[in-house]
Amino acid sequence: MLTIVQTADGSNTIYNPQIGENYHSKHGALQESRHVFVNSGLQYFLDRTEDLKQTGGAVKISPTGEDLEGAVRTMVSILEVGFGTGLNFLLSADLCDQKQINLNYTGIEAYPLTKEMIAQTGYHQYVSAELWQQFNAQYPGALSGEVSINSNCKLQIANCPLLSFQSTQQYDIIYFDAFAAAYQPEMWDEAAIGHTIQYLKPGGVFVTYAITGNLKRAVKALGCKVEKAPGAQGKREMLRAER
Ligand SMILES: C[S@@+](CC[C@H](N)C(=O)[O-])C[C@H]1O[C@@H](n2cnc3c(N)ncnc32)[C@H](O)[C@@H]1O
Asked: Which of 37, 113, 138, 143 is the most buried (most CB within 10 A)?
């Protein structure tokens, strides 16, 4: 039975007894999600886009991303492998709300949690009350198609195993948040990584909490530039790659 357990920073995660592993780092679910995915992925991508704008390089602004005053808004798309509790989604959507950025988020999840389980995570503490309420209300619908969480943010969760996921879309950022290779090696092999990276736009950013020689080689072989970035609490390094 899945159970909610507390991690070292006081935030909750879920323990999966079949896998024998938590959904997040025991050193802190919140700190891991913020560090690996939001700061090293989303914020890194936004900072890089801003730098390109300053230097006259390619700018990732959607032509349809205009707000009510007609100002052009930045639009960012994220694909997450292993949607789980939605913590990475919630923190990313909250940041995009604060920055007035449009977010198009797709999760892939083979074993979706019930909405009752998600409601018990306590993650309402880390995002706006409106976002939490909308996410909880729309989560069941997101499992069968795209839903609007608010006027900035669209969410869909593909209820299928990674290798069955098919899309015509490519994404600016990929959050790769599978269970560790020691527990689910098939999520980290060349087939799984190759299947994932095909959905990354040229110039897009791939992040994951782990780094191994095999992973680096697999990502490099797919034509990405690989970087060892500082890891979250309890891990020296993590992998960030750009296509
Ligand atoms: C480390 S947890 C993800 C944590 C999640 N990102 C969160 O913040 O709660 C790994 C997730 O991958 C899912 N998963 C396991 N096998 C999968 C597969 N073959 N395809 C897609 N998702 C899978 C699990 O059900 C679990 O939700």
From this structure: 37
Residue 100 is encoded by which pair of tokens?
Answer: 């007035």
Q: Which CATH architecture has domain 28-242?
A: 3-Layer(aba) Sandwich (3.40)
Provide the residue-wise pLDDT of the chain in tens; the chain has 243 residues: 999 999 999 999 999 999 999 999 999 999 999 999 999 999 999 999 888 778 876 544 454 555 555 567 799 999 999 999 999 999 999 999 999 999 999 999 999 999 999 999 999 999 999 999 999 999 999 999 999 999 999 999 999 999 999 999 999 999 999 999 999 999 999 999 999 999 999 999 999 999 999 999 999 999 999 999 999 999 999 999 999
CA of 66 to the centre of ligand 1 (A): 34
The domain locations on the chain are 28-242
CA distance 182 to 200: 25
